[in-house]
């Protein structure tokens, strides 16, 4: 096992991202598994944490096989080769996408009920997940976030399939992975504890992170004005 749990992975990943702290980036987590990882990163850098909602589009006979992904902002990524293998009709594919779009919209409402997404344009964005296998969700998120105009987009994960990571490098300004794996099996194989992260835990982490960031920011401002 490479990591004890997502918190351990996030704390270790943060050490590779500390040089971005001066740019005051926004950390965007891919929920649900990426949220505890990103929380450690945001805390270490003293910056804001939020989520970017993406839902994997699984093959009908194998939901774990990501043939694409649907992102907030209306972006849809499809792996054309895998879609062909599923032999889905255009109508079936359109319906599958529509259902995932509804899931994305529902999760945006759930996780952003307290506060909207902070401005992204012109800022450095650290996009964080707990790992990358096929990369469909990461790719959909990257393409959607690019539309918002960040000055720099960094993909950061504790572990990932080396081949997938290589295919993503040209899509981001920087890619940080603690453990690129050639013969990759599954993300959970590299964690001792890879228990599911409930929605309630995601909400709790986000609410606490927002409070801590606001208090810290106000404290820095008060000190600077003395």
Could you please describe the fold and organization of this structure?
With 226 residues, this protein is α/β, with parallel strands linked by helices. Helices cover 42% and strands 22% of the residues. The protein has helices spanning 6-15, 34-45, 80-86, 90-111, 136-146, 162-168, 199-224; strands at residues 26-29, 48-51, 54-59, 62-71, 76-78, 124-128, 152-161, 174-181. The strands form 2 sheets. It has a 5-stranded parallel β-sheet with strand order 2-1-6-7-8, sandwiched between helices. It starts with 5 loop residues before the first helix and ends with a helix.
Helix and strand sequence: HEHEEEEHHEHEHEH
Form type: globular
The total count of strands amounts to 8
| C-alpha-based Rg, rounded | 17 Å
- Secondary-structure-based class equals alpha/beta
Strand portion: 15-25%
Helix content: 40-55%
Report, as a whole number of angstroms, the end-to-end distance.
49 Å
In which order are the strands of the major sheet placed? 2-1-6-7-8
Q: Which consecutive residue ranges, at least 5 long each, have pLDDT under 50? A: 218-226
Arithmetic mean pLDDT: 91
| Distinct helical segment count | 7
Oligomer: single chain
Main sheet makeup: 5 strands, parallel
């Amino acid at each position: 096992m490479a990591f004890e749990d997502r918190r351990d992975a996030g704390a270790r990943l943060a050490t590779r991202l500390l040089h971005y702290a001066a740019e005051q980036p926004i950390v965007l987590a891919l929920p649900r598994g990426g949220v505890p990882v990103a929380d450690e990163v945001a805390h270490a850098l003293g910056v804001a944490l939020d989520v970017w909602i993406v839902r994997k589009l699984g093959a009908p006979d194998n939901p774990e096989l990501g043939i694409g992904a649907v992102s907030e902002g209306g972006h849809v990524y499809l792996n054309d080769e895998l879609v062909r293998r599923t032999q889905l009709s255009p109508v079936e594919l359109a319906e599958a996408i529509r259902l995932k779009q509804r899931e994305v919209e529902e999760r945006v409402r759930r996780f952003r009920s307290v506060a909207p997404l902070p401005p992204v344009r012109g800022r450095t964005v650290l996009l964080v997940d707990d790992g990358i296998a096929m990369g469909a969700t990461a790719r959909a998120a990257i393409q959607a976030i690019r539309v918002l105009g960040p000055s720099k987009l960094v993909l950061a994960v504790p572990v990932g399939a080396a081949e997938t990571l290589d295919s993503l490098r040209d899509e981001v300004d920087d890619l940080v992975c603690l453990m690129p794996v050639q013969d990759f099996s599954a993300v959970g194989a590299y964690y001792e504890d890879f228990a599911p992260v409930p929605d309630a835990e995601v909400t709790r982490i986000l609410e606490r992170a927002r409070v801590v960031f606001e208090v810290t920011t106000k404290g820095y401002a008060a000190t600077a004005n003395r």
